[in-house]
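Protein in question quoted in full.
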Amino acid sequence: MQFNKLNFNLDSSESWLILLIYAGFWLYSYYSLVICLIHTHKQQRIAENLELEESSLDAL
């Protein structure tokens, strides 16, 4: 399948497929980034809680 930007029109099913794949790729990339950031934030909170618990046990 050869794609020419000059012939891109929304009447063609081929153009819609390319647009759908492009949008899907960016949505999945954004979703993955958000999930990764949430996971990293949770891991940092867990590490901070462990450090607080260790420091409170050391104080006893």
Remarks:
- The chain has one helix and no strands.
